[in-house]
What does this fold into?
Amino acid sequence: MDDMTVLKRKAGADMVLILILVLLVLYIVWQRWELSRFGVTSYEVRSPKLRRSASAAVIADLHGFSYGKENKRLLEQVKNMEPQVIFIPGDLLVSKYADTYDRALETLKELIKIAPVYYSYGNHESRLRDPERINHPLFLQYLKQAEALGVQIMETESREISLGENQVMLSALELELDYYEKGGIPPMEAAYMQQHLKLQREELFQILLAHNPAYAESYAKWGADVTFCGHNHGGLIRIPGIGSLISPQLTLFPKYDAGKFQIGNRCVIVSRGLGTHTFHVRIFNRAELLEINFLPE
Ligand SMILES: [Fe+2]
It folds into this structure.
């Protein structure tokens, strides 16, 4: 090989390396930009059990994120939507990072000024029930502070609430941590839902907050007219036309990844979530705040 060929090859290799570095920098800049933004997705939920229209905001998987100082951008958006109720189906914090508790509380403090807030547990909250966890005492304090602000914290239970001018039944389901195990979706027994959460006053419109969307069919079968889920974060990476690539439980192409799923005459709405943790990646999968318009049928 002559000197000229060696030089040409070296220049070629340098070009490839520079190109990879440029692409890497562009990717990092794009991801930082992407992670600092969220969109609003609106859904209509119709039911003959509703007498009047009403609206709600759903904030899933915020994970201690802040859009602007003290979450100003998110709070302004929620305020502009004028929701009559705010639902939080879990994972408002990151269990191992105590600073996310403070940010979650700051956000709750402002949300409660907009509308009544109903907050049910995600796997991050459930994990902190364990007294062996280093952040357990801090979590108890967090719950106390949230309740003192007026936030309605719901474990596995049902409450009759006002949704605008409608009386509806709001239920929350906290799943055992086994149902979040990585590597597969443990089956849920047919009687599980009814055993843990007895369906009350079936004649009322039934709303369920259930963090994990993997059991969407069980929620609908149980009797939830609409279920609000999160947990999947839209699958981190979404392929246009196909959907989520992988779930947090490391299952490929999860069925209930994001969006509205009709199951018979009931529906399950899965949010792509507002925050991330551990893997701060969102590709074709912008964070979202949900706006729900409830309409009589
Ligand atoms: Fe989660």
